[in-house]
Write a structure and sequence with these properties.
273 residues, alpha+beta, PSTPO5379-like fold, 7 helices, 11 strands
Length: 273
């Protein structure tokens, strides 16, 4: 058994290039709590939203009505933290950290959910743009935030989502600067990943989508490598806006930038389970 004192701290550089089993083991044992961009290349990374079962039908409907910011990869049975359809996953331990909300307010950030898991909770997996970043890099489009070991910047926007039950609110986007001559390549490459948000929702002036200060993201780190054209992709943090609007008595998400990494090939394009 690995105790807190015996846990060896892992770094991003140490995990870069390792397979998903090794990365997940580092996260599960608590030796790695950092961002997951660039880790376990070729595997689907997902956002998490965990809710009491009574809210699950409306939240599922919200995801299905907003497939670009909320591409629904799968959902668990109520109360079951194990997720064999996505791999050897325990949803309580296998994201680097979790945010806990009560009545719509963030009340805690924790390294695991062992103390708060309940038998009425349903977990939703929502596709993440981290998945297509490996394809962009392979195509020759650099990802400055990965090179700098930082979390991609994310912003609230004035782009409305389609409401379902108590869930609604604006879309969240993630930002990457791309050289002008690579904009078309970046658009075409990411369009091949509909379960990782697909093509960008906006290219160019951030003010057009309600972003007033590009250097002050709502989540993640300020942008790096700002030479180029700003390109914005729909982001799986969007449900956190929707959850804040619905204000359920309890909901849990991943901490932005610290995703759940599945065993699923990142080319998947269908609902799994």
């Amino acid at each position: 058994m690995i105790t807190h004192q015996e846990t060896k701290v892992s770094t991003f550089d140490a995990l870069a290039g390792q397979d998903v089993t090794s990365v997940r083991a580092a996260i599960r044992t608590g030796s790695y709590r950092g961002h997951t961009a660039g880790l376990a290349a070729g595997k689907l990374q997902v956002n998490l939203a965990i809710l009491p079962a009574e809210y699950a039908p409306d939240f599922e409907a919200f995801c299905r009505q907003n497939p670009q910011p909320c591409p629904l990869v799968g959902m668990t049975e109520a109360g079951n933290p194990l997720w064999p359809a996505l791999g050897g996953i325990d949803v309580r331990t296998d994201a680097p950290s979790y945010n806990i909300y009560r009545d719509g307010a963030l009340v805690d950030t924790v390294p695991d959910l062992k103390a708060v898991w309940r038998n009425d909770l349903v977990a939703f997996a929502i596709g993440c743009s981290f998945t297509f970043e490996a394809a962009l890099v392979a195509a020759g489009v650099p990802m400055a935030h990965i090179d700098a070991d930082r979390t991609v910047p994310m912003y609230r926007t004035n782009i409305a989502t389609a409401p379902a039950g108590p869930f609604g609110g604006g879309m969240v986007v993630s930002l990457r600067y791309v050289a002008p001559e690579q904009v078309a390549l970046a658009r075409e490459t990411t369009a091949r990943f509909p379960w990782a948000h697909g093509a960008p929702v906006h290219v160019g002036d951030p003010a057009e989508i309600g972003i007033n200060d590009i250097h002050a993201p709502d989540w993640g780190d300020p942008p790096v490598g700002t030479d180029g054209v700003p390109m914005f992709w729909a982001c799986g943090v969007t449900p956190q806006n929707a959850l804040a609007e619905a204000r359920p008595p309890l909901c849990i998400t991943h901490t932005p930038g610290r995703m759940l990494i599945t065993d699923i090939d990142d080319q998947t394009n269908s609902f799994i389970a």
